[in-house]
Write a structure and sequence with these properties.
By secondary structure, the protein is of the alpha+beta class. It contains 3 helices and 7 strands. Bound molecules: nickel (II) ion. Nickel (II) ion binds next to helix 2.
């Protein structure tokens, strides 16, 4: 396992097209391990492959942040097949370190995805897990926190982004 640098907002790879995962071999398994390891270290609840500069439809989630092996979720080529409820909730992202904003999310989702071996699985998620699933799937479509904001809220968020940049606190975590 290895820690990979997490790309910060502004890096075009975060908004690039992500290709479907087609090969479920040792290279993918290494990447999955690295995503978990990098997420635990950050620390964060999930990480998408484009956040480490690999533009494929792969993300990991671990709400236990490394404390429970059973909590590890691998989402390859994921799709949300059902969503219910709505909540406005605070959200952060490792690609916007230190920033949080309220956005709208479903309260429950049903997600279909392949695991690291290519096996298709379906999962029901609610609460924080539903939020994490939606957040990571957004990454696979190049959708970032800021894209959920409009008008004044977006301008205020971007002002904070510029402030973080100016302060020099935003660097890739290596
Ligand atoms: Ni994120």
């Amino acid at each position: 396992m290895a820690i990979r640098p997490i790309l910060i907002f502004g890096d075009l790879r975060l908004e690039a097209t992500n290709e479907a995962v087609e090969h479920f071999g040792s290279e993918l398994h290494r990447l999955v391990d690295d995503l978990f390891e990098t997420g635990w270290r950050a620390p964060g609840l999930g990480l998408a492959a484009p956040q480490v500069g690999v533009n494929i439809r792969l993300a990991t989630i671990d709400l236990s942040v490394g404390t429970d092996p059973d909590a590890r979720i691998v989402l390859a080529n994921p799709e949300i097949v059902d969503r219910r409820g709505k909540i406005r909730i605070e959200e952060g992202c490792l690609s916007f370190p230190g920033l949080f904003t309220n956005i709208e999310r479903p309260t429950e989702v049903r997600v279909r995805a392949q695991d690291e071996h290519g096996v298709l699985r379906e999962m029901e998620a609610d609460g924080l897990l539903a939020q994490a699933v939606c957040h990571e799937l957004d990454h696979l479509d190049g959708v970032l926190l800021v894209h959920h904001l409009r008008g004044l809220k977006r301008r205020l968020f971007m002002r904070k982004v510029e402030k973080m940049r100016k302060l020099g606190v935003w660097r890739e975590t290596a």
